[in-house]
Amino acid sequence: MLFQRKIIPITILLLFFSLPCNSDAFNGKGIFSIDLGYLGAGLMNNGWGLGVAYEHGIMNFASVKGTFAHVSLKPDLQHDWITSVGLGLNARIYPFNKGLNLLYLGYGIGTDFVMYSGEEQEKQSVYISHCPHLGWKQNFFDYVMLEAYIGYRMKINEPDEFALQSGISKHGVEYGITAQLNLKKIWQLIFSSGKSE
């Protein structure tokens, strides 16, 4: 319990962060990132999680984004595990024609495969949802990209009760702010400034 009290505040800070892995993360046609929000959701439910995403520009004003996530958790310290594997696909349009930056309109669909492992039985469920969304991505000198978004998630099918317990099967308004850090460029800045002195 003491471990969770220390790790949860750190996790909440990291919840909105994803870390791009390529050197020209914000100026190129693709952004590959690790989403730590799933780790936070897992840790707050006595488990763990991780997500990855890749957004690729297909024209100057449009992109597609694919996501993969895995979360294993035990709500309320039960003896039962809930595991989810999620896949998502989003299409985005950037009306200002500035690449993967500034205002975007998007629409996405996601599928979560939820597995329940209990003492007496095992269950499986599939939760499918779709979500129109609106967002703004701002690149700051290719070091940090902030993204604010709002959307409305709608369920296509009704999830089972244990899938609802996991908190994965969201429905309704969702919003947030994410920050993507270009760690390679930040690392190069720190060490290049040290050499010039």
Overview of the structural elements:
This protein has 197 residues and is an alpha+beta fold. 20% of the residues lie in helices and 53% in strands. It is built from four helices and nine strands; from the N terminus they run H-E-E-H-E-E-E-E-E-E-H-E-H. The protein has helices at residues 2-14, 37-43, 161-165, 183-196; strands at residues 17-20, 30-35, 48-59, 62-73, 81-93, 102-117, 122-140, 144-155, 172-181. Strands 1-2-3-4-5-6-7-8-9 form a nine-stranded mixed β-barrel. Strand 7 (122-140) and strand 8 form a beta hairpin. Helix 1 (2-14) packs antiparallel against helix 2. The protein is globular.
From the helix content, strand content and strand pairing, which structural class follows? alpha+beta
Instruction: Report the average pLDDT across residues.
Output: 76
Shape: globular
> What is the strand content?
over 45%
Main sheet overview = 9 strands, mixed, barrel
* Helix content bin: 10-25%
Computed CA radius of gyration, to the nearest angstrom: 19 Å
Number of strands: 9
- Order of secondary-structure elements: HEEHEEEEEEHEH
Side-by-side strand order of the widest sheet: 1-2-3-4-5-6-7-8-9
Question: Whole-Å distance between the termini?
Answer: 47 Å
How large is the count of helical segments? Answer: 4
Give unreliable regions as ranges: 1-6
